[in-house]
Amino acid sequence: MKSGDQLIVTSIVEVLRKKIISGELPPGKKMREVELSAEFCVSRTPIREAFRVLQSEGLLTYIPRCGVMVADGLDDLKVFEMIQVWGLLSTEASFLAAMNATDSEKAELLRIQDIMERDPFEPNKMGNLDHRLHGAIAKISRNSALYDYVCDIQSHLGSLAFATQFNERRYVNSVMEHKNMVDAIVNGHAELARAYTQIHFQLSAAFHRGNVQEFNQRLSGKKGP
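Structure (tokenized):
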């Protein structure tokens, strides 16, 4: 797909994602390609691509003989398991990064960490910074397959930052967990980096699973007849 086409798909995904999570497109709502093509002034191809992305995030579902519908909610167990897998990958990435990071790469990790510590609490920005930091660590691992898998699973969890907002207490704890990870990597303590990353993802998985359950309860109150 050309870069321009991908930008169109990404834009459509962002609009539809926000409408689904806000309840403007309620659970059970049928998604009609023709109507959306007219709304976004595009062909049906980017609409279908956007549907695929949102289906991978669990926000849309395909029902035979009915078509694509807004899902009843996110699968909290699937989210929990995906974060567990992300954690397993990132734990190994932190271990390898501690052994391989150059001075410039260490400086980049510290820069991202500094933004996390310095900037005021803002849920969506925190989610983006979290993905950015773990992506950078995976890249520093020098394992291209590991990096690709981390990027892939982060993209599948794209709706999570919007649906399950960080609360301020979790934000403060998460910043400290990231600081411990980054400090261990920067100082070359591979086993410590692995341990801190494992703890971070155990706490993160439990937090997000609980928030997904709350999100689904909110959505159920907006479900149409």
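DSSP finds ten helices and two strands in the chain. The longest helix spans residues 190-220.
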